[in-house]
Amino acid sequence: MYAALWRVLPGPVWLRIILLLILVAAVVYALAAWVFPWIDVLITPTQEVTVDR
Amino acid sequence: MTEYQPGDIQPGSDATPLSRREARKAEAEALKNSASPTEQSAETPDEPAQTGLLAFETITAADDSVPAAGEAASDRPSKKKSRAAKAAEQPPVRRTLATKVVGVFGELLITAGVFVLLFLGWQLWWNSIVLTNEQASDASSLADDWKLPAVTGTTPTPTPTTTGAAAAPVNYGEPAVMGAPSAGNNFAILYVPRFGADFKRTIAEGVDPQTVLNKGGAGHYEDTQMPGEVGNFAVAAHRDGWGSAFIKINELQIGDPIYVETQDGWYTYRYRDTEYVTPYGVGVIDPVPQVEGATPVDRLITLTSCNPLYIASERIIAYGAFESWQPRSAGPPAEIASVVGSGN
Predict the structure, then answer these.
(1) Minimum-distance CB partner of A1 among B104, B115, B279
(2) Shortest CB distance from B304 goes to which of A28, A32, A50?
(3) Cβ within 8 Å, pair B279-A51
(4) Nearest CA of chain B to the CA of A53: how many Å?
(5) Which of B40, B61, B218, B241 is the most exposed place for a label (fewest CB within 10 A)?
(6) Is B107 close to A50, i.e. CB distance below 8 A?
(7) Angle of CA points B45, B46, B47, to nearest 5°
């Protein structure tokens, strides 16, 4: 899986490393911005701070 | 796999270089005999269950055979040559479908582990830092918007020099009460020095998680009273995650000030007591808490959040009683003066 990713990336090793870091940063940002908030609302009880009937 | 004849090399016996070389020759010979069936079987891995073992054997066979052959020809310069030869001759580790599937599965498991760790880091740390910073800047800009226009020219301004106000609280009369804001609208700022010297959060109308509470600030129960109004000004906020505004709600001490700023001025409440209720304990936000239908006399503030931390099977309720208010022209209370606005 990751070996295939490494093969797909173009250029010399240093360029591949830079591309990989950019990819990782993009993925982590997407997770933090959209995926994690969505999951948190679904699974954690921290939403419940109000009294309700 | 290399078959040593008993007596070839005696452990501990001081073998001369000659006899050692002879031993190697014998070893190489033995290897030739044993290696051919091994390699044959490695090249035709019909049984997938043994693939790992076969691959291992293939590698070891190459490891052993190459230096043995090189050293048989010449002893010394064989080192470099043998390494290059090894790289060239070593058959690649064969990956069958089964090993590929297992490999991808393993990578998926590692990815899942990293994903869970990232989520925890985001939930417990990153998100709260981001939201706290957003709250600080939101509250600051809100307070800046409410700032009275700078006094221009001829009108003298007596307010900044009223140092006596700190010593003897001035009574500004009945507190101004604003009308109900529209849902989701930031209409007030909450300052609680006990929660942190620079603690300030926006208060928005409504307690909807998505549109209000998950932005890190507090939300005002829509049917409850407004700041300074007779009755109960009830707000909710997260305690663990999403900015953790009320994480220290259990650390309030009797008499701790709770300041609320609106466009009209500042309202000072003093923390009075704490109550733990079930999630359905709506009596706590009644105008007279826990006394349904009673006519309110006091002005109260009620903070609600979850309890226990990270479990939220109960609610923690902190009450404060109104002490005083001061209009915008009087300036902010001394204790939070440095925190109000963008602080310059």
Answers:
(1) B104
(2) A50
(3) yes
(4) 5
(5) B40
(6) no
(7) 95
Assembly ipTM: 0.91
Dihedral sign for Cα B203, B208, B212, B215, please. positive
CB-CB contact of B325 with B267 (8 Å) = yes
DSSP A12: S
Task: Give the number of beta-carbon pairs within 8 Å between A and B.
Answer: 86
Residue in the block written with tokens 């690649």: B92
pLDDT on residue A49: 77
Rounded distance, CA B273 to CA B230, Å?
A: 18
Q: Provide, as residue numbers in chain B, all residues whose Cβ is less than 8 Å from the Cβ of A33.
A: none
Q: Is B98 in a helix, a strand, or coil?
A: helix
Classify residue B287 as exposed, middle or buried by CB count within 10 Å of its CB (0-12, 13-18, 19+).
buried
Inter-chain touch A53–B312, beta carbons under 8 Å: no
Whether the CB of A30 is below 8 Å from some CB of chain B: the reply is no
Concatenate the DSSP letters of all residues of B247-286 into one string.
TTGGG--TT-EEEEE-SSEEEEEEEEEEEEE-TT-GGGGS
pLDDT below 70 — which residues of chain B? 1-93, 150-169, 343-344
pLDDT tens by residue, A10-44? 989 999 999 999 999 999 999 999 999 899 888 87
Q: What's the CA gap between B163 and B155, in Å, rounded?
A: 20
CB B239 within 8 A of CB A49: yes
From CA B44, how far away is CA B24, in angstroms rounded? 29
Q: What percent of chain B has pLDDT over 70?
A: 67
Residue from the list A1, A39, A41 with its beta carbon closest to the beta carbon of B119: A39
A36–B285 C-beta distance less than 8 A:
no
For chain B, say whether A38 makes contact (Cβ under 8 Å).
no
Cα dihedral B210/B258/B200/B222 (nearest 10): 20
